[in-house]
Design brief:
By secondary structure, the chain is mostly beta strands. The protein contains no helices and 16 strands. The protein is globular, with a radius of gyration of 17 Å.
């Protein structure tokens, strides 16, 4: 939640961290080693500090801008012993004229040992859209393009299933360089053509 106008801000509204047994399998890549550029007008050239390197959508090719107007609106929460759910409206984080709504739902199901991050987007006209996951783990793709595994070791890992609707899509992969720190891998569900409505959900399940 929050805004993009916070102390030592990263443009990362809607970000998260997925941690199991002390290891972060997916989510916010963290910070960079400070340089003069970090505290200059060129701060957000960094893909570690701007929203591109965070696990949040890119809408019409645009990233989240800096400032208090880029803010999440909390729509609902539901916390129980079995399951936690948080729903955020991220629409204000993307100044795109065609964007009608962008809602992120995050669910942690303890019984199923599964965490799910789902984005639902609507546009008034066809618009480019992608939603990524970000990881420092080793990535093993399955024969099924909707499935992959994030591995800490051969015996430790998290299985990921992408459930996507709205159009044809493929994985767009990129290494987010972070000198002197671990570089993160960005794996984005990218639609082949502009969409008017779409849903992208990543289900992370403990796989050991």
């Amino acid at each position: 939640g929050g805004t993009n106008a916070e102390l030592h801000n990263h443009n990362d509204v809607g970000s998260y961290a997925l941690v199991l047994d002390g290891f972060q399998y997916a989510g916010d890549p963290g910070g960079e080693v400070y340089t003069r550029r970090t505290f200059s007008k060129h701060r957000y050239v960094s893909k570690v500090l701007n929203s591109y390197g965070h696990p949040v959508p890119v809408v019409d090719g645009k990233l989240q801008p800096t400032g208090r107007k880029s803010a999440a609106r909390l729509l609902s929460t539901d916390f129980t012993d079995a399951k936690d759910t948080v729903v955020l409206d991220l629409t204000a984080c993307y100044p795109v004229s065609n964007l009608v709504s962008l809602v992120r739902t995050m669910t942690f199901d303890r019984a199923a040992r599964t965490a799910t991050v789902a984005d639902e987007v609507k546009f008034s006209a066809p618009t480019a859209f992608e939603s990524p996951l970000v990881t420092s783990a080793d990535v093993v793709f399955d024969y099924d393009p909707a499935k992959l595994r994030l591995q800490r070791s051969k015996r430790e890992g998290v299985d990921v299933t992408a459930t996507v609707s709205g159009g044809d899509w493929s994985w767009a992969t990129e290494l987010i360089e972070n000198p002197t720190k671990p570089s993160a891998k960005r794996l984005a569900v990218r639609f082949a053509a502009p969409v008017t409505a779409a849903k992208v959900a990543f289900a992370f399940k403990a796989g050991f």
